[in-house]
Structure formats: structure tokens, C-alpha cells
């Protein structure tokens, strides 16, 4: 009887230890998933803020910020369009300032290390080279795909949505 009791207690202790390890692993995975969700939304938000802040006096740094917060198709587009964006911004002395209004995670694909985020912002655009053009207010809504690259989340695709 004593041996059976000891064996039963050993099995019980082993079962409790396994349950504790499983619970700890599940909690760690849930915390990692939450960190990824927050990081994905934060990456889209930082990129959108860079899109809203374009000024002819700082255009080179502004475009660099867009390139630095993007990857893949989005990054290639900024690199390809850098000279044209710079020229247009300088010629018309564009100054755009904006405010982010909302952002939210739409979906997340853990296997592909991608997420879809919606971001909304307002901007005020001034063309300082032309006194006839009144400042213009714009509302932007973006659907952004963000991709985990190494230990960073970067915007891999960005599109305006209606």
C-alpha cells in the first residue's frame, strides 16, 4: 500500500509539473502574440506619421524616414520615387502636417509574420511657393500590410482606401 501511495504521489507531482510547464508556455506564447500585435500596429502608426509629415525644408529626412520604416514593395516604391517626390516637394514648397486619428489591427498571420492594419489621419497641406493656393485639408485612410523582418515590423504595402 505504501508503494502504491508513493507511486500515486509521484505521478500526481509529475502531472502537476507538466501542467505548470504547459501553462507557462501557453502564457509566454500569448504574451509574445500580444507583443507582435502591438508592434505591428505601432509600425503602421509610425509609418503613417511619416507620411503625414512632409516638408520641403526637410524632404530628404522625411523620405528617408519612409524608407527606413518600410520593406519590400513599399520600400522599393519610395526608393524608386524618391527623386520625383523630392523635386515636386521642393518646386511647390510643400509643407504637410498631420495628426493620426486611429489605428487598429485587422488581421495577423503568425506563420507568414504579417499583419494588416488600418490607420486614419488628417493632414493640412500648404504650397508655400504659390500664394494663390489655399491650404488644403485631407483625410487619409490607409490599409497597411506590415511584415516582421528580423526583430522589427515594417510596412511592406500601403494603400489608400475609401
UniProtKB/TrEMBL annotation:
The protein's name: Mce-associated membrane protein
Keywords, comma-separated and alphabetical: Membrane, Signal
Subcellular location per the Swiss-Prot or TrEMBL entry: Membrane
Superkingdom per UniProt: Bacteria
Signal peptide limits: 1-23
Source organism of this protein record: Microtetraspora glauca
Amino acid at each position: 500500500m505504501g508503494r502504491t501511495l508513493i507511486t500515486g504521489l509521484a505521478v500526481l507531482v509529475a502531472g502537476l509539473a507538466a501542467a505548470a510547464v504547459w501553462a507557462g508556455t501557453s502564457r509566454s506564447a500569448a504574451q509574445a502574440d500580444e507583443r507582435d500585435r502591438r508592434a505591428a500596429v505601432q509600425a503602421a502608426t509610425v509609418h503613417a506619421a511619416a507620411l503625414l509629415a512632409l516638408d520641403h525644408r526637410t524632404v530628404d529626412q522625411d523620405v528617408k524616414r519612409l524608407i527606413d520604416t518600410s520593406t519590400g514593395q513599399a520600400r522599393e516604391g519610395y526608393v524608386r520615387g524618391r527623386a520625383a517626390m523630392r523635386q515636386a516637394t521642393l518646386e511647390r514648397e510643400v509643407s504637410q502636417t498631420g495628426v493620426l486619428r486611429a489605428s487598429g489591427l485587422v488581421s495577423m498571420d503568425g506563420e507568414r509574420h504579417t499583419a494588416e492594419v488600418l490607420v486614419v489621419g488628417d493632414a493640412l497641406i500648404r504650397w508655400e511657393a504659390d500664394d494663390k493656393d489655399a491650404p488644403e485639408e485631407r483625410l487619409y485612410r490607409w490599409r497597411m500590410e506590415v511584415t516582421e523582418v528580423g526583430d522589427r515590423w515594417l510596412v511592406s504595402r500601403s494603400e489608400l482606401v475609401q
